[in-house]
Fold Enoyl-[acyl-carrier-protein] reductase [NADH].
Amino acid sequence: MNDMISLQGKTFVVMGVANFRSIAWGIAQSLHSAGANLIFTYANERLEKGVRELADSLENPNNLLVQCDVTSDEDLAKCFASIKEQVGTIHGVAHCIAFANKEDLKGDFVDTSRDGYLLSQNISAYSLVGVAREAKPLMVEGGSIVTLTYLGGERVMQNYNLMGVSKAALEASVRYLANDLGKYNIRVNSISAGPIRTLSAKGVGDFNTILKEIEEKAPLRRNVTQEEVGDSALFLFSDLARGITGENIHVDSGYHIMG
Ligand code: NDP
Ligand code: KAL
């Protein structure tokens, strides 16, 4: 049990657990350690079993699972309707979802196709807007929405390409959503995580080189973990962060301050 932060009696929706390496799973573990009730969403049936096994592995598992492909307005509406029916009130959402076609994550950004661009924006940026809209009526006691971004949304990073543009849209969406939802005491923030080896990072040719550069250049001279991102999300979900909204917190060993 986390002895600094208690979220006992509070309920959070965690979107984007693909496997035990997922950042969403790091966040789920931190929330669980603070005594929170969890609801997991998964994109399609293919992943349900894995997510169920992970959810059941948490001690005291009374966690719910709901299907939600964020490209579908119908899924989004059904998902939050089902959550409302099952638990009533929620206190936050962890949005840990992004996608771009493989061919758009190499070469020149200028060659990005219209379809590839729209797909990435749809899954990686618009989805936060849809999620916030559907989650808002369930956060009647106030709430906190946390999404994940990467430094490539602020600066040009090799190969991040289209995803950098989607993250820039996501980060701007955080600010506009924060302004809309502040009057309901709902806060909206992002965490800009340093590189972490997850399924999404798989197949990235020079990932080791990227990790090594952080070890050499970042102020803390090491990479970050899912647990560290999870604990920062836990802070943003807690009352300790009650004055913070529209913010982007870098959990990246300080790498972003370096020239
Ligand atoms: P994972 O591969 O573990 O998670 C990505 C998740 O996105 C998967 O669970 C995937 O579900 C989900 N997803 C993709 N398309 C959809 C969809 N249409 N509907 C619902 N869910 C969908 O990788 P990470 O944990 O690394 O990624 C989580 C977030 O963290 C992303 O936003 C990523 O950009 C961000 N991030 C990651 C960093 C890293 O180095 N790993 C660094 C900074 C930010 P499914 O498998 O079912 O398709
Ligand atoms: C500069 C970095 C190197 C990597 C370049 C691009 C990474 C983009 C992230 C994006 C989310 C990856 C994908 O969409 C992968 C997808 O094309 C193929 N993978 C899948 O479909 C798997 C099965 C599913 C689970 O993945 C998803 N996303 O659904 C960025 C590095 C250093 C940091 C990273 C990895 C940042 C980030 O945003 O994830």
Residues 16-18, 22-24, 42-44, 47, 69-71, 96-99, 123, 148-150, 193, 195-196, 198-201 surround NDP (ligand 1) (CB under 6 Å). The chain is about 40% helix and 15% strand. Residues 185 and 224 are 30 Å apart (CA to CA). The longest helix spans residues 114-135.
